[in-house]
């Protein structure tokens, strides 16, 4: 049961926003950690508490990493977590959660059910890791429908066609050494619709946690 639990979502980009919304819909109190001030402000304006992982470990029971960045949940966090905290990653790379630390430092590791490991720490506390820190929606659920991938790739092709055929409507700005182009308004609207699909995809993660009935 997620209602009443404290969950932290690391990263408030597209994936983080969907995960936070889904967790909130199930009644969890959601914390956000972010390094980008704009995304952090967006989270605060949506009513989420923005905090650090170091602060979150005192209250959170559920950890979801969505940053695509390395070393988000590390050894020092595992050592402070509450008993039977659930940790998972939905970002692309399996470097967000330091599973190696658990494998090297935990007293024991038990397979509770496929893709669900329960580590016993030297302190006697337990940590539950889903899909060994790999993409949880693919490891523990059925992934997202092929329609979502098809939608995403179609968006990219549409954006390229738009940039090629409407170069004057697209706004191009130079950010540091990278050139960033913003596609025209009507295309932005269709891309926004596709983001709704991404939100739906993240809800699979929550369905999985719900069925685990670990609490
Ligand atoms: N599981 C899936 O099906 C699926 C689907 C789409 C994308 N992804 C993956 O999810 C990840 C995120 O994708 P996205 O589109 O949301 O990217 P994004 O760039 O929109 O969001 C990532 C956010 O994480 C923040 N971040 C980076 N480092 C951080 C840190 N150390 N602490 C806190 N926040 C940090 C960034 O500021 C950014 O706001 C990527 O790895 C992407 O490949 C997975």
Automatic annotation (TrEMBL):
Family matches, as PROSITE patterns: ADOHCYASE_2 (PS00739)
One biological process term in Gene Ontology: S-adenosylmethionine cycle
Residue ranges annotated for the S-adenosyl-L-homocysteine hydrolase NAD binding domain, each copy included: 1-143
EC numbers on record: 3.13.2.1
A GO MF label: adenosylhomocysteinase activity
Pathway(s) per entry: Amino-acid biosynthesis; L-homocysteine biosynthesis; L-homocysteine from S-adenosyl-L-homocysteine: step 1/1
Entry's transmembrane regions: 183-212
GO cellular-component term (any): cytosol
UniProt KW keywords: Hydrolase, Membrane, NAD, One-carbon metabolism, Transmembrane, Transmembrane helix
Uppermost EC category: hydrolase
Needed co-factor(s): NAD(+)
UniProt cross-references to InterPro entries, sorted A to Z: Adenosylhomocyst_ase-like_sf (IPR042172), Adenosylhomocysteinase-like (IPR000043), Ado_hCys_hydrolase_NAD-bd (IPR015878), NAD(P)-bd_dom_sf (IPR036291), S-Ado-L-homoCys_hydrolase_CS (IPR020082)
Keyword Transmembrane helix tagged: yes
Record family assignment: Belongs to the adenosylhomocysteinase family.
Protein known as: adenosylhomocysteinase
Organism this protein belongs to: Bugula neritina
